């Protein structure tokens, strides 16, 4: 099967491309370097020639919710429209567990807008909502680091390995479109505590300061809004197992 991966050079996207290739699929990675801009649509139709399934792992983290919303809605609509013209049969989109339970957080509003946009297009859709990744604390530290200190929010999460997310995306791509699925890791953690463990494992002198998320958003997160529910698929590795793996060594601090 020929699969196109939007965001295929990102954290999850690269693992998705690996999983698709390991499963014997023909993989097309949609990147600006290859002449494809999913946000504007430039080069997209040509890149989707012969593609049977699109997997969307694109990401944009902006302090402005309006910018994230504009990005996700535009890219989703472009994938839908160009995919329909190219005869694509299925669009698989990556989203986040619990975004409907934290309605005031701007980035989650943007992801909900993405879900709405992608389901309004002509292509059949599968949405995989995943929890934060094991790699997520390191990503926060890269952004929040100020000299020898990194400020990391205290978020109750049930993280899953990005590699595992990629494998599930490819599995869903090979199946019939089936609506919304959820995926989480096996254990509940505090993101700030995981950041400290990553730093310790690396032997770094970086000091991690965990801070509570304020307001209603923080209250909802502390109450477990981002955790697995009864219908969520649970898959490993655990954070401990991941921390000792080659995948953990790939991340930068």
Number of strands: 12
**Basic shape:** globular
Mean pLDDT: 96
The Rg value, from CA coordinates, equals: 18 Å
Structural class assignment? alpha/beta
Assign a percent range to the helix content: 40-55%
User: CATH class, anyone?
Assistant: Alpha Beta
Order of helices and strands: EHEHEHEHEHEEEHEEHEHEHH
| Biggest beta sheet attributes | 7 strands, parallel
Strand order of the largest sheet: 2-1-3-4-5-9-12
How many helices? The count is 10
Low-confidence stretches: none
Straight-line distance between termini: 37 Å
Subunit arrangement of the protein:
single chain
What descriptors fit this protein?
seven-stranded parallel sheet; Rossmann fold; alpha/beta; three-stranded mixed sheet; single chain; 21% strand
